[in-house]
Design brief:
The protein is mainly alpha-helical. It is built from six helices and no strands. α2 runs antiparallel to α3. The longest helix is centred in the N-terminal third of the chain and has 26 residues. It is elongated, with a radius of gyration of 17 Å. The structure holds heme C. The site of heme C (HEC) has 23 residues, from α2, α5 and α6. The site of heme C has 23 residues, from α2, α5 and α6.
Length: 151
């Protein structure tokens, strides 16, 4: 019984954290979710940027910790861009997210790949490796925002 309960619990936790099955009651909920994920990702990404750009002292442990968070969060926003979430709340997502969904997905996949590389680079523990990976990831953020987010 206990083993079954533990298994069910593990399975439901896995389901909860699998972005692809994320469900939202209202478009506003999805919009709030994706904006929140972007905001938290952006906060940790900015901490890496401050180190990469020499605005704060490089700290290998901090860098690795922030990069792991960015890596995890980079996977979350995309499931919240479902059909019908183009309007509502205070969304800044442009209609092209849905009109050119293949390109949007490509850009999202690119970020997930870049964030994985960033995390690996941060674990190397040198400022130089962080700088290169940060710059490349930052270009991916900018590229998508230029195409798919209102100013
Ligand atoms: C695949 C496209 C894409 C990529 C890649 C992307 N973003 Fe975004 N981002 C968006 C869109 C679209 C919005 C607007 C969402 C909305 O308002 O519904 C947004 C919004 C944001 C916001 C504002 C959230 C709010 O509260 O309004 C921040 C901050 C942000 N992104 C940070 C980042 C950072 C940092 C990266 C890179 C590490 C990144 N984004 C990568 C598409 C992207």
């Amino acid at each position: 019984m206990k083993a079954i309960a533990a298994f069910v619990l593990a399975a439901s936790v896995a389901a909860l954290v699998t972005p692809a099955v994320a469900q939202f009651a209202k478009p506003e909920d999805a919009i709030k979710y994706r904006q929140s994920a972007m905001t938290v990702m952006g906060t940790h990404f900015a901490r890496l940027g401050a180190m990469a750009n020499g605005k704060t002292a490089f700290d290998a442990r901090q860098a690795a910790g922030n990069a792991v968070i960015v890596e995890s969060l980079s996977k979350l926003p995309w499931a919240a861009f479902g059909e019908g979430t183009d309007k509502g709340g205070n969304t800044k997502a442009l209609p092209d997210v849905w009109k050119d969904s293949a390109k949007f997905k490509e850009s999202a996949d690119k970020l997930v790949a870049e964030a994985t590389k960033l995390s690996a680079a941060a674990k190397v523990g040198t400022l130089d490796s962080l700088k290169v990976a940060f710059g490349s990831a930052a270009n991916t953020c900018k590229g998508c925002h230029d195409n798919f987010r209102a100013k």
